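for the writeup, i need someone to sanity check this before i put it in the appendix. the sequnce is what the collaborator sent (i think, or maybe the updated version? ugh). structure was predicted straight from it, no edits. if anything looks off just tell me and ill rerun, i have time this weekend
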Amino acid sequence: MDVSGYAAKPEAYDSLSAYQIAEFCNEHGLARDEIDHFAANLLGSPVSATPVQGATSYTVCGDKAGRVVQFRRSQLPMRKIEVARQIYEDFVPECKSQGMFGPVHVYVANLVPGPAFCRVRSQFFSPAPTMEQRLQQTVQDFARFFASAWINKPAHTLEPPPGLLGEYSKILDEVSPDLPAQLQAKLDDVRQELPRLFRSSYPMVLQHDDLLENNFHVDETTGHITGIVDWADAKIAPFGVSLANMEVVLGIQTRTNWYFHPNHHSLRKLFWKTFYRVTGYISKDDRRSIEVARLFGLFREHGREEKEHAIAYLSALCLL
């Protein structure tokens, strides 16, 4: 089954970006040409808007500089971004504060080459064999990215926010009621095993908490991930919670369902094979903890949506 048609086309992101830029300028009372002029002076070259924008920022790239300027509603957590660069290395672009421009915060970052995955996902999910080879590369790089957090633990222990276990339990309590029996059993298992994620021996790591298809870029000729952006919402959490986002390279979410790549089972095996090759030995107990964290992430992400949507998404993602 060809599922590529379920992916949004680049034109949809063009329209969304134009809307977001206009909203950002209106919200902060700024003229777009004045912002662009300020950015051009910072980079020493003309600038243009990047193809994918954010809901609370405006980003432009220099024509020659190999850098971007981002104007943001709120400050970035620079210390967390430094930690992210230590953990995930070249996956995270360098970023520096440039003060303020009127009411908004200004940052200069390295340009991440290649399109955001959202703009090429329909190509990568097409039936052509060459496209599946590129998607396989993306899957392997995604696995290496997640494995980086296991092998590059900071020298000092990262402390989670106080009460995080209670917060996670509350999230599971808020999952849509009256789930089908299989899903309810899976939810109960995750609830019962949550404390294993807070064992002193299990790592707390800094994780990207919004790792959607618009926040990582790829080389569209090879499938290699060239960088992961938008670390504004990075969080310290038990390792594996953000693994819920691995699904964005295995399938496509629509308003009502989740459509997997026809070969998602083999792609999933490739992901885990690559992950465990990079991490090296991980005990059976920790492997179970990783799975509990991943399932919790899925229930957190999709379990509190409207009942019929929650059941559709969770059935597809948790009952593989």
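Residues 138 and 223 are 5 Å apart (CA to CA). The domain at 4-110 is CATH 3.30.200 (Phosphorylase Kinase; domain 1).
thx in advance!!
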